[in-house]
Design a protein that fits this description.
With 255 residues, this protein is of the alpha/beta class. Helices cover 38% and strands 24% of the residues.
Length: 255
């Protein structure tokens, strides 16, 4: 469903993506892992068309979205739902207005139809009856779930998750993981998540890809990644302080 072909992106002299390649199958959950600052979120922004690559292609359902103009891109983005790292709710809007935002802005559905869809989506994430609350009245975990309700509200074909368990405690993080798995199984959608949380990656992924040095260096099932022979992947997934990653990028430089 999604092909990333020789994708390149640099910011000044800093190369973030360097001929990155990955294929994502229809209906699977692909998790992209890697250290903070390696370009995982940049990759997502290219898939949704927020960023334009310096070179390479992003082909979705046979369409190279790097060649679309802004209007075509806006229409194409209705295929996507996205859960942002911090939920990214609009503070001035109610929960219901946040969840239904894309439908209000980009469809001709009636208010009654949109409100019905909002109730359905909040029900999917276990938050029925909170449409009139404001984001300031929600816990961190509730904000994540409202963000997820907004992501599924447009009936997307693809959902993207940017660090879905960041900012919540381990118990709520596991609840978010369970919700991602449940929604994937129920809605049969293609999912892409980026994370450095290996507990989350192992739980939600059909396949895991590691981004390192601007390239996808390994792709495999959770079991294949757990048993990898690649020393870079092995250091990352085990969280070891000593190994090829820190030989190249010393830990002290991160502190």
């Amino acid at each position: 469903m999604i092909e990333i072909i020789n994708l390149c992106k640099a910011f000044g002299n800093h190369v973030v993506l360097d001929n990155a390649n990955i294929n994502i199958k229809k209906g699977e959950t692909m998790v992209v892992i890697g250290r903070s600052g390696t370009g995982k979120s940049v990759l997502l922004k290219h898939i949704i068309g927020i960023m334009k690559p310096d070179a390479g292609q992003v082909i979705i359902d046979g369409v190279d979205i790097t060649r679309l103009d802004e209007k075509e891109l806006n229409d194409f983005r209705m295929k996507f739902g996205m859960l942002f790292q911090g939920a990214a709710l609009f503070d001035s809007l109610t929960v219901g207005e946040n969840v239904g935002f894309a439908l209000y802005e980009h469809t001709n559905l009636s208010v009654a139809q949109i409100e019905k869809r909002i109730k359905e989506c909040l029900g999917h994430v276990g938050l029925s009856g909170i449409e009139e609350l404001k984001p300031a009245e929600l816990s961190g975990g509730m904000k994540k779930r409202v963000g997820l309700a907004r992501a599924i509200c447009v009936n997307p074909e693809i959902i993207m998750y940017d660090e879905p368990t960041t900012g919540v405690d381990p118990i709520m993080g596991d609840a978010v993981n369970d919700l991602i798995v449940t929604l994937h199984d129920k809605l049969k959608i293609t999912s892409i998540a980026v994370t450095h949380d290996m507990v989350s990656a192992y739980k939600i992924a059909d396949r895991i890809a590691m981004l390192y040095g601007g390239k996808i260096i390994e792709v495999g099932t959770p079991d294949e990644i757990k048993n990898t022979k690649n020393p870079v992947v092995k250091q990352f997934i085990t969280g070891a302080a000593v190994g090829p990653i820190t030989e190249k990028e010393p830990v002290r430089a991160q502190l």
